[in-house]
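Renewal narrative, Specific Aim 1. Our central claim is that a sequence can be written position by position from structural information alone. The example that follows is taken directly from our test logs and has not been curated for this report. It begins with the structure tokens describing the chain, in the order in which they were read.
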């Protein structure tokens, strides 16, 4: 629906005025003190801003670190959004495929989670190495990503500036000024861009004065189909923007009242994407061959203050590596150890490359394998996934089922079949879990490394999640400004209302901490004890040694954000040069501006998560 409207509007603009930009330059555009005009910018240089005090001020008069990006700069660099623009701004880092930092939430987990960067890319920035800046449009807080098609300039105000009336995070504020309709200025602009990957971007921008000296309107549209080197990632962005301005009263004969104006804007849009990912999957399989790594790797890790052999799994080091650590003095045998050097080395160095696991020997139930089926010889992890199996409530229970839990007594006929956790608990045996490879690390503070070999998976050209991920965002925004000036622009008040709604539906399997490649090293499947002899049946696992990917989150999340803001801004300027004829007095007392602001903002955030059911009757 939005795409059709954009096409009709663009065609109407072409038929009426042609495809070139046209403006009536001889008209004098009168600006409110509460606004700035991109027409004042000269090339890449801007001289005025609202960032300092919410009224138009000269940048040279403001004691803040402010960077202003003009429309011409964005055109020359091809920047269209925060990701493509902020990489050019000093002391600002930005995530994404064009950025310079990951914006991941890795921590000590098995993989780096890029969910936030991929679902909410406008938040993927950091100022002065601290935190992300507040995002605003016309200084109303927003979560809607900006685009250059309706942006006249972008202002980056670095640092926690209290003069911004509560909007200054430690990172600062990044504001985009929306394009306005100007009375007395007619423009038409149509643009088309494409690239070698198949991306196609089209915009139009039409401005008209409908009533001389009274009413103007501006309509802009966007259709952006962006492709990436990483297949099959894509982003489709469709938007429509309308701005208008009306002069209600000129008050030309009044020395007290100035111009009374009313302006506003409305934008609606939809962004549909399978976002690219800048971080390769986590390597959880190399340790099956290499353990903690070479002797040099082991020495380096254990030389880190606070790291010792207790932090490393015994199945990650060979006996030779442990002996070398003792010989070099990197590690010593604890005084509490009661045994010989050889016994200590044997205890701490149990790694055997490419060890598979006989899961039914956990706990050495037959007394014939101290390594418990290979479990003590390798680094492994225990996955949790849906796998039907016959379960006993405890190792001593003689009847399969979950009798002690009333809710489970009648489940599936009471036969004890459970579709959870991929584990088997036979009578008289410890719980038997599936085993996959894990990554050997130095313990707390160390994380598993990312995949570096593109022969294993070409993460540069292929998206690890394939086409399983989707993020759909729909939004609309409405703004209205009523401005009353006094004393020939020396004082004024602005009443403003902003309303924003954003709905986002996201489904991101394999990117919520699960972006990991492992190997299945379990020798046997969990088929149960079909003859009830107390010994589990041993069916060979046909996937032994194959790579596996874990998906632990099947949520489809719907997020709705509603925001309503009322703001009143007032100012008064006293310029002694205008009130006194004494040059000395005017230079001493200068010019003073007092600004006040009242803002009332209400945010409503709703989140709903739906998890798919694999075995419930109502899901069939």
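The sequence written for that structure reads:
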């Amino acid at each position: 629906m939005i795409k059709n409207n954009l096409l009709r509007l663009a065609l109407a603009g072409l038929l009426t005025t042609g495809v070139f930009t046209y403006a009536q330059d001889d008209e004098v555009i009168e600006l409110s003190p509460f606004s700035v005009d991109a027409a004042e910018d000269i090339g890449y240089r801007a001289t005025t801003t609202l960032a300092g005090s919410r009224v138009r001020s000269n940048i040279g008069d403001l004691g803040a670190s402010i960077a202003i990006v003009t429309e011409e700069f964005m055109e020359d660099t091809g920047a269209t959004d925060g990701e493509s623009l902020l990489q050019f701004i000093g002391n600002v880092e930005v995530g994404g495929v064009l950025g310079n930092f990951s914006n991941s939430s890795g921590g000590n987990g098995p993989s780096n989670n890029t969910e936030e960067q991929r679902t909410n890319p406008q938040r993927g920035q950091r100022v002065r190495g601290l935190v992300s800046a507040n995002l605003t449009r016309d200084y109303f807080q927003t979560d809607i990503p900006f685009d250059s098609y309706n942006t006249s300039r972008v202002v980056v105000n670095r640092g926690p500036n209290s003069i911004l009336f509560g909007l200054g995070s430690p990172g600062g504020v990044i504001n985009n000024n929306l394009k306005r309709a100007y009375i007395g200025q007619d423009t038409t602009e149509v643009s088309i861009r494409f690239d070698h990957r198949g991306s196609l971007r089209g915009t139009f921008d039409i401005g008209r004065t409908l009533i001389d000296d009274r009413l103007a309107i501006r309509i802009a549209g966007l259709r952006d189909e962006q492709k990436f080197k990483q297949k099959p990632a894509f982003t489709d962005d469709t938007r429509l923007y309308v701005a208008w301005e009306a002069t209600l009263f000129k008050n030309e004969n009044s020395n007290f009242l100035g111009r009374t104006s009313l302006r506003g804007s409305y934008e609606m849009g939809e962004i549909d994407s399978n976002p690219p990912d800048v971080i390769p999957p986590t390597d959880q399989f190399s340790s099956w061959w290499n353990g903690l790594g070479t002797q040099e790797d082991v020495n380096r890790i254990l030389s880190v203050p606070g790291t010792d052999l207790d932090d490393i799994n015994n199945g990650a080091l060979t006996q030779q590596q442990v002996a070398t650590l003792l010989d070099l003095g990197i590690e010593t045998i604890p005084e509490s150890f009661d045994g010989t050097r050889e016994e200590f080395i044997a205890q701490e160095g149990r790694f055997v490359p490419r060890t598979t696991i006989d899961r039914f020997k956990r706990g050495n139930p037959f007394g014939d394998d101290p390594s418990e089926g290979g479990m003590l010889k390798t680094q492994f992890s225990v996955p949790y996934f849906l796998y039907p199996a016959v379960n006993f409530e405890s190792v001593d229970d003689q009847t399969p089922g979950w009798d002690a839990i009333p809710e489970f007594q009648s489940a599936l006929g009471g036969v004890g079949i459970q579709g959870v956790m991929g584990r088997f608990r036979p009578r008289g045996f410890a719980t038997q879990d599936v085993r996959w490879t894990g990554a050997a690390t130095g313990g707390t503070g160390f994380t598993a490394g990312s995949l570096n070999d593109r022969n294993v998976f070409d993460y540069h050209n292929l998206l690890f999640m394939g086409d399983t991920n989707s993020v759909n965002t729909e939004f609309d925004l409405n703004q209205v400004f009523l401005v009353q000036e006094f004393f020939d622009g020396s004082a004024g008040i602005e009443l403003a209302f902003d309303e924003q709604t954003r709905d986002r539906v996201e489904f991101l399997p394999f990117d919520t901490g699960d972006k990991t490649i492992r190997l299945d090293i379990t020798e046997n499947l969990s088929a149960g004890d079909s003859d009830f002899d107390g010994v589990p049946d041993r069916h060979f696992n046909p996937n032994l040694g194959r790579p596996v990917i874990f998906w632990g989150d099947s949520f489809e999340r719907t997020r709705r954000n509603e925001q309503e803001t009322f703001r009143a801004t007032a100012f008064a300027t006293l310029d002694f040069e205008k009130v006194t004829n004494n040059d000395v007095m005017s230079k001493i007392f200068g010019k003073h501006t007092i600004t006040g602001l009242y803002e009332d903002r209400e945010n409503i955030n709703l989140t709903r998560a739906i998890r798919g059911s694999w075995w419930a009757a109502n899901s069939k």
